[in-house]
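Bug #77: duplicate submission created two jobs. Keeping one. Sequence:
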Amino acid sequence: MLEAVIFDMDGVIIDSEDSFLRSKQQLLSELGVEVDVSYHYAFFGTTSVYTWTTLKQAFNLIPAVEQLIERANTLREAILHEEGMKPIPGVLDLIRRLHANGIRLAVASSSPMADILHTVASFQVQNCFATFASGGECQNGKPFPDVFLLAAERLGVDPSACLVIEDSRNGLLAAKAAGMACIAFANPDYVAQDLKEADQIVTGFAGLTVADCHQLMG
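Kept job's structure:
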C-alpha cells in the first residue's frame, strides 16, 4: 500500500544535470584536464564530495576537495543565474496532485540541504513536502540506501510503503537497496542510463497519475 512518495531532486524536480555537467567540464578544463562529457555520467546521483574526491585522485588535481567543490558550485551558480532554474516538465503538477490526495512526500537528494530547500521554495512547492533528506547527512551516498532510509524515517513510513522517483542508475540502485519501489524517469533529452531494475520507466510526468502510483504498489 502506498503511503509516501520520495522524490530525487536533480534531474527529477529541477532540470539541473546540464549545469552540473558543464560546471564540471569547465573546472577540469581550468585545471588542464580534458575529458569527454560522457565521463561524468557515472557520477549521476552521487554527492559532490564523492565526485570530486574521485576526480582529484583520477587526475592528480592539486586543489583540496573542498576548494574543488566550492569552485564547481560557483561555476554552476553562474550558469543557473544566467539561464534560470527550470523544473522538469509536469513534475510540479504531479507533486501537487499527490499532496492533494493525502500522499506524504519527501525529497531525498545527494545535493546539500540548502540547495534542496532553495529549489522547492523557488518552485513554490515547499509546503507539499513533509520532510527532506540530504546525502550530506548520511555516511554513504547513493547507490547506498542511506538517504532514502533517512527520508522514510523522517516521514514515519515503513520503506516498503514508499515509492521513489529517480532518474539515475545510482539513485535507482539506492531505492531498491532501501526496499522501496521505484519509478525511473528516463529523460529523453539526456543520455540513456541502465534503469532496467525500475518497477516502471517513464519518459515524462504529464501522464503519470496518482492512481498509477497506487497501482504500482499493488
